[in-house]
């Protein structure tokens, strides 16, 4: 279908609370990513595909968006990384930075909601909420990487980045507004000027991204990979993401972009105004073996955060 | 801050439900200018469906491509820049091979 369409996105579920973790679906999605890389010049076709883990219906960002109801509905996806850059610039403390961001988010949510309610009343179409995922634009002033570095991380990818990602997502969690979708930190390597630069410099690596996903949202987005990446190597990464989203009960996606003919460290060839300059990243993966290389479905329950301790 | 997308969710049916799509177009013709009038840049209008295995239950490739291309064409004329036909599902293992 991707080959036959121009502006259509598709996705594939790799894990959900109902289906569990499907090794067969993971393998299928890895094969899709591999095949789609050769559909359009420079592997651009994978912009239109993502593997989904635990993503609920009603998320407004693509490729993750899907509907589950009978009646129509609408939600808003907001490109809001600049809000966090502004809120954190000049803040005298972490508490002040967090407060600044919460205030601006709630103020904007109020005006966006007011318009939504008018539209809802006039059209009869239900409003499902806002997704203030701090989506970036490929400029330094509208970058999640910039926000993390404003907090004090020397360069995204170095230690401290995980804490910055957690801090940002926690601030979003504390803001009060109707929610749809992710509402977390989005780390799309190619769409974010600072992340792209740190990827090119080598401080930000692919293994960093699932690590940060444990404390924020969205997973791995627009990650440029070597053109000779094998589907079995992609499957290993997708399995990690599926395990993470099931164990932590959070939505995660993977939009991976093998760049045909390119090796790790080379410049990708994407010609797209929403992408910043970066370099192809090493996947750091090998094919799975043994039981994990099978086609089973298995369930992972959420880890109880307060396990009972033996007395004494 | 800009609005990356006003995303409209719909079950378009197959054959495509003309009335439902017309309603989607009318909705977006009102929603987009409403946010612009409030001072927000709206980058795109997007339409997301129920998962495609639930739209075309036969999962025949030629039928899916007919549905996908027709939906893209019609919604493009209604002001939507992008369409999501949504995920292949583990309950429909054959749905994955239809995506590329």
Textual characterization of the structure:
The complex is a heterodimer of chains A (312) and B (100). Chain A is an alpha/beta fold and 312 residues long. Chain A contains eight helices and eight strands; from the N terminus they run ββαββααβααααβαββ. Chain A has a single domain, classed as Anaerobic Ribonucleotide-triphosphate Reductase Large Chain, CATH 3.20.70. In chain A, α8 links the parallel β6 (218-226) and β7 (252-259). Chain A is globular. Chain B has 100 residues and is an alpha/beta fold. Chain B has one domain (6-98). In chain B, 37% of the residues lie in helices and 21% in strands. Chain B is built from two helices and three strands, in the order βαβαβ. In chain B, α1 links the parallel β1 (2-10) and β2 (45-49). Chains A and B meet through β1, α1, β4 and α3 of A and β1, α1, β2, α2 and β3 of B.
Describe the SSE topology.
The complex is a heterodimer of chains A (312) and B (100).
Chain A lengths: L7 E9 L3 E3 H14 L12 E5 L19 E7 L1 H8 L5 H30 L2 E6 L12 H8 L9 H14 L18 H9 L6 H6 L4 E9 L4 H17 L4 E8 L37 E2 L14
Helix pairs in contact in A: 1-8, 2-3, 2-4, 3-5
Chain B lengths: L1 E9 L7 H20 L7 E5 L11 H17 L4 E7 L12
Parallel strand pairs in B: 1-2, 2-3
User: What is the C-level CATH assignment of chain A?
Assistant: Alpha Beta
Low-confidence stretches of chain B: none
Please state the structural category of chain B: alpha/beta
Overall pLDDT score of chain A: 94
Side by side, the strands of the main sheet of chain A go 6-7-3-1-2-8
Tell me the radius of gyration of chain B. Answer: 15 Å
Number of domains of chain A: 1
């Amino acid at each position: 279908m991707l080959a036959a369409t121009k502006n259509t996105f598709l996705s594939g579920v790799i894990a959900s609370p109902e289906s569990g973790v499907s090794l067969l679906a993971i393998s299928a999605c890895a094969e899709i990513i591999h095949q789609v890389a050769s559909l359009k010049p420079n592997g651009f076709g994978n912009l239109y595909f993502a593997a989904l883990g635990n993503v609920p219906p009603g998320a407004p960002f693509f490729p993750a968006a899907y509907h589950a109801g009978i009646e129509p509905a609408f939600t808003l996806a907001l490109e809001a990384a600049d809000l966090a850059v502004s809120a954190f610039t000049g803040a005298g403390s972490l508490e002040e930075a967090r407060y600044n961001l919460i205030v601006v988010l709630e103020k904007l949510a109020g005006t966006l909601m007011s318009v939504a309610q008018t539209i809802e009343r006039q059209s009869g179409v239900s409003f499902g909420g806002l997704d203030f995922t701090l989506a970036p634009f490929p400029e330094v002033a509208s970058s999640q990487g910039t926000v993390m570095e404003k907090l004090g991380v020397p360069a995204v990818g170095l230690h401290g980045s995980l804490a910055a990602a957690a801090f940002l997502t926690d601030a979003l969690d504390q803001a009060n507004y109707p929610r749809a979708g992710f509402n977390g930190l989005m780390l799309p390597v190619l769409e974010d000027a600072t992340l792209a630069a740190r990827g090119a410099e080598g401080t930000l690596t692919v293994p960093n991204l699932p690590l940060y996903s444990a404390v924020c949202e969205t997973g791995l987005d627009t990650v440029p990979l070597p053109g000779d990446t094998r589907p079995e190597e992609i499957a290993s990464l997708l399995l990690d993401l599926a395990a993470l989203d099931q164990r932590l009960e959070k939505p995660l996606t993977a939009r991976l972009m093998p760049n045909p003919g390119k090796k790790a460290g080379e410049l990708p060839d994407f010609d797209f105004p929403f992408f910043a300059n970066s370099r192809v990243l090493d996947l750091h993966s090998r094919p799975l073996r043994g039981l994990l290389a099978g086609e089973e479905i298995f369930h992972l329950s959420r880890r109880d955060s307060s396990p009972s301790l033996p007395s004494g | 801050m800009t609005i990356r997308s006003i995303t409209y969710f719909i079950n378009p049916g197959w054959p495509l439900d003309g009335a439902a799509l017309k309603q989607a177009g009318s909705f977006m013709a009102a929603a987009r200018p409403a946010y612009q009038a409030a001072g927000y840049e709206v980058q795109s209008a997007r339409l997301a469906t129920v998962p495609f295995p639930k739209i075309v239950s036969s999962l025949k490739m030629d039928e899916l491509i007919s549905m996908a291309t027709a939906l893209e064409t019609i919604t493009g004329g209604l002001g939507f820049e992008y369409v999501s036909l949504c995920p292949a599902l583990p309950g429909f293992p054959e749905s994955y091979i239809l995506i590329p």
